[in-house]
Write a structure and sequence with these properties.
single chain, about 210 residues, five-stranded mixed sheet, about 35% helix
């Protein structure tokens, strides 16, 4: 199964279709109001580049078709759970995160936007926010889904291992990260944190629809 993707930039330093995420990233990192999206075929990407970003915003454009054997491998998601996700306009850029009930996408919490954040930081904060909330409600048996392996590993290590530089403009975000790290050091995470298998189940229910 090919993992090749193509990226359309409607609003960035350079506009057009790019076959490399690293090249695409250079066009949107730190660019205000960047508009971009990934596609699984060159034909789809070229067609999209001739249209408007609004026509594709919030729509799934990179769905991979799995074989019956692959679908059986992943099974179905547990709907009696909570799903978390983050969104960031640029890298760094304005970041927000939220948590929803997996079965109906009803929002439980939403924070942000925060200035000069990253998606990984948002994913980390979303997980910590969720486990802390559930602990306060004595619901430490409810599983939590995340589609970020990085954020999940940071929670296990009780440390947000970002390389982001902080200054006065994003001090509030740094303070929140420190609070999250302190909470992890002082508490035990009992809620099962599960990986959301996007390629088998589609976008995580907490997705902001901005990819």
């Amino acid at each position: 199964m090919s993992k090749k993707k193509f990226y359309v930039v409607w609003n960035g330093r350079r506009k057009g279709v790019f076959s490399s995420w690293n090249v695409c990233k250079k066009q949107i990192d730190g660019f205000e109001h960047a508009q971009y999206k990934s596609f699984i075929s060159l034909d789809e990407a070229e067609k999209a580049s001739k249209g408007k970003y609004e026509d594709y915003k919030g729509k799934t454009t990179n769905k991979v078709v799995l074989s019956a054997a692959e679908k059986a491998k992943y099974g179905k998601p547990n709907l009696e759970t909570i799903a978390v996700d983050a969104a960031c306009a640029g890298n760094p850029g304005k970041m927000e995160y939220r948590g929803v009930f997996t079965h109906n996408k009803k929002e439980i919490f939403r924070k942000g936007p925060f200035e000069k954040g990253t998606n990984n930081i948002g994913e980390f904060l979303a997980l910590v926010h969720c486990v802390a909330l559930l602990k306060s409600k004595n619901k430490e048996d409810i599983p939590i889904y995340s589609d970020s392996k990085i954020a999940m590993s940071w929670v296990r290590q009780k440390k947000c291992k970002t390389n982001l530089r902080f200054d006065a403009s994003n001090k509030a975000l740094l303070d929140l990260i420190k609070r999250a790290e302190n909470w992890l050091r002082e508490n035990t995470v009992k809620n099962p944190i599960l990986k959301w298998e996007t390629k088998a189940w589609g976008e995580i229910p907490a997705d902001f629809g901005r990819k």
